[in-house]
Amino acid sequence: MRVYACLQQGNVHADRHCCAASSAHVQTEIPSLRPRLTRPRSPNTTPRLTTAAADPALVRNLRLFLLHAAQKPGWSSELEDLLTNKLELQPGSKQHALQVICEAQQAVMTPAQLVELETGLHGMLRLFSTHELLRLLQGHPQLLQCPLASWLEFFNSFGFNTSQIKNLVSQQPRVLIDSDVAKAGAAILQLKQLGFDNDEVRHRVVAFCPQVLAMSEQDINMLIRLWSKFGVGVDERAGM
Questions:
Q1: Is the dihedral of CA 23, 25, 26, 31 positive or negative?
Q2: Domain ranges, ordered by start, for the chain
Q3: Which pTM does this prediction carry?
Q4: pLDDT of 151-182, one tens digit each?
């Protein structure tokens, strides 16, 4: 009996020792399952990611994020190549010419956006020379985020000629930046409901105030009422 008791007591101590060792082992192993970032050894070193049993997709996405964060914001080689090709820039001058434009892009453009932009630039080059378009984009780099192809199709569908489109885009580029095609279409329909025909919309209203394409219905009504009172190119028959 004493021998059995001693053996049983020894097993209890052994079990406690094993449990303690297992607990310590778990405490030391669990933290290693969590991804952790370590500081880079030099300013030019990308932070390293050490993982154990981590989601491969999560690791891949995090690595891509870190690599992108180490680059200049928005500087896209695809965008640079597209502009270099469309604007016919020489290798020695493209860095200076595109710096302002590319650095203004705070988000990397998707493939669909690049296709839209390429189509839009192709249409813009029918209106502007390469030098004129470059100057326009340098002054208003936000135009690269606009659906230029959709805007050009919109103007053509409402009968704007080449000269009118060029004047509007070059003199009032903020209209394309601040508005969108749907809002501009609603503005033209509102003007027609007020009694203006297509020619009057193009030549009397939009030509005089392109900002009308970015206005709401209420603002358009107030503008036309103000014009009619002061006799600025409209008359009382326009629904007022």
A1: positive
A2: 77-159, 179-239
A3: 0.61
A4: 999 999 999 999 999 999 999 999 999 999 99
